[in-house]
Amino acid sequence: MGIACSDGVNAPPAVTDISAVAWHRTRWLIENRYPETARVWSSKIFARRMRGREAIATDHRSLQSSNSFPSLSRPPVRRALEYFGPERATTAERVSRPIRIDLGPGLPDLAAFPIKAWLAALRSAASGLSSSDLGHPDGAGHSELRDVLAAYLVRVRGAATGAADLTIVGGVTDGIGRACRALRRSGVRAIAVEDPGWERLRGCALDAGLKIIPVSVDDQGLCVEQLETYPVRAVILGPAHQFPTGVALSTARRAELLDWARRVDGLILEDDYDAEFRYDRRAIGAMQGADPGHVALFGSVSKTLSPAVRIGWMLTPSSWTDAIRATESSLTGPPILDQLAFAALLKSGRYDHHLRRSRMRYRIRRDRLVSALARSLPDVHISGIAAGLHVVAQLDRAINYRLAVNLAAAEGLRIVRLGGFRVHRIDAPDGLVLGYGNLADSAVETGVSMLANILEQAGTVSDTRAGVQ
Description:
This protein has 469 residues and is α/β, with parallel strands linked by helices. It folds into three domains: 18-84, no CATH class; 96-111 and 353-458, Aspartate Aminotransferase, domain 1 (Alpha-Beta Complex), CATH 3.90.1150.10; 114-348, 3-Layer(aba) Sandwich (Aspartate Aminotransferase, domain 2). It has helices at 18-33, 43-49, 54-65, 77-84, 115-127, 143-157, 172-185, 199-207, 251-264, 318-325, 336-348, 350-376, 401-410, 444-458; strands at residues 101-102, 166-169, 190-195, 211-218, 221-222, 234-237, 267-271, 295-300, 312-315, 380-383, 390-395, 413-414, 416-417, 432-435. The strands form three sheets. It has an eight-stranded mixed β-sheet, with helices on both faces. A four-stranded antiparallel β-sheet has the order 10-11-14-13, covered by helices on one side. The protein has a two-stranded parallel ribbon with strand order 1-12. Helix 5 (115-127) crosses helix 11, helix 6 packs across helix 11 and helix 13 (401-410) packs across helix 14 (444-458).
């Protein structure tokens, strides 16, 4: 019995021999999903991509010589690999239709970027530019931005700060990467990370030569008691709004974590990536404000303005500031003109105005998305606090979420699996991390309708029959 796909065509039956798998999948793809002009890889490239043996190349040559499809050279057989077996194709090989509706997390509303306010800030910065500003920049960042930003962090995030320990960087990952390198140089060998968590932060630690220790996350946030079982003195976490689960670190866990840091003389790297967006109450203050000697606060404008602006900051304990600033960075600091423009945006009050409008927009969009999901998927469970730019959706019924991601990509819908953010993936419930930051309001209903149809298909196919491992 074939796999029923979205266009009603049955996929090839499940087979175990790898050359037969290649033959069946390729032939089905060309016959049923691509036109006569579809291009096919040469047998040599096809065999290498399939990581197979000569038998695959032989089968592929017989396919090309048949009348089933034209014998043209190269792609997109890789689309078959991605469609049937997402874990077998490398990231570079994954090809899908252009994204029509983006339900993936990570981006703010790019169409709402305050371009007029930013241009005005740039003009203001340029008009006040001094000759000294055109020389070699201070590695810690322009003093004007540091002064203004320090006052903002005290006012909005409850931080305990002075500009002396505030450093302007290229983003959160740039700052955390530098902190991890400073930790490694100081003799630290391992660092705890949230599981699930943002893979790029784990990458920062690994690139610095640190061993990562995954620590579980539950509905109260990081399971702090697990830190006691490992020889670690540093941890990376998002207490205000954990990614991807969307939970906030409870008051009790915050107290436990700060107590742990004091006992081991440790360092907490606080990822404050989207704390400005809380919709049901005032945003929780930064942990750094409770213990500036053991907490380093990292933030950026990637979620509030755009990741393309590439302005971030780190507020570090005085005992760590020089060591962290001394580490080399793979990124150059933000251009001085952009730093001064952001300072002007903060001083003018236009940044606060933009945030107020953004919070209203995202709250309404989140409510609309959650309501649409409830209507189209009655068994859906939405988890996480009302904050940020994403929700976690899980269904009561069994769903092949890996297959769902690929079925969606084939239809031009971007969705992301919760399981993809885990370090330990065994026996952990999967789901979807659905973003709404860069989702057009007019696309909410259409996107959810497409998602419901895709999940219906993905709920009837097992991992084995879908070619997913």
